[in-house]
């Protein structure tokens, strides 16, 4: 029940998936910064937690990958080209969840601000701005777009399996 099987993802994988799906989806509210410079209820409500929740996503992604590795031989498989595409997109989503937080840190620090996580100071305010950090940190926004596109394709894939092919793909994750 806790472990995956060939027919169904176990409780731990499902917990990781849905808990992190909620965390990742709410990170997308950060796009709300484009509306009125973030001065609205969306920015006010979710903005302050963006960095801490981002760091939490990264830690959970590491734990989830370790767990996934342990379950490798007994997980549900999707054969064929579609299965390969799905697997490839899962890998890129994991990469985004691991790489976006450090890029976010570089962006903030490079701009000359301190980096605070869960109310604690991770990095004190730097003496000056660092241009190369900001340049690298700008990829955070690029990966944000990649992740949105993949999550949208992922959701569409899940709906396609469930409502058109009427197979077990969605059921084995819920
Ligand atoms: C996997 C976790 C994360 C996700 C999915 C995520 C997602 C996003 C998204 C969707 C945006 C809006 C992009 C845009 O403005 O075009 C954004 C912006 C931003 N994020 Fe994150 N983020 C994550 C983690 C973090 C972390 C850990 C930090 C800092 C420690 C951070 C700092 C920022 C900053 C400063 C911006 C505004 C500047 C920019 O657009 O590059 N993020 N993030
Ligand atoms: C929004 C609603 C979502 C739905 C309906 C959904 C549905 C599913 C389904 C049905 C599977 C199993 C696919 C298979 O067995 O081939 C799956 C796996 C997966 N999903 Fe989602 N998903 C959603 C959101 C997300 C989000 C936001 C992320 C992270 C960015 C994500 C990342 C993954 C990953 C990495 C897997 C591979 C299995 C694993 O490593 O845990 N999903 N999803």
TrEMBL record:
It is found in: Cell membrane. Residues 8-174 form the Cytochrome b561 bacterial/Ni-hydrogenase domain. Pfam families: Ni_hydr_CYTB. Its main location: membrane. GO terms for molecular function: electron transfer activity; heme binding; metal ion binding. It comes from the Bacteria. SUPFAM superfamilies: Transmembrane di-heme cytochromes. Keywords: Cell membrane, Electron transport, Heme, Iron, Membrane, Metal-binding, Transmembrane, Transmembrane helix, Transport. GO terms for cellular component: plasma membrane. Its cofactor is heme b. PANTHER family: CYTOCHROME B561 (PTHR30529), CYTOCHROME B561 HOMOLOG 2 (PTHR30529:SF1). This is Nickel-dependent hydrogenases b-type cytochrome subunit superfamily. It comes from Methylophaga thiooxydans DMS010.
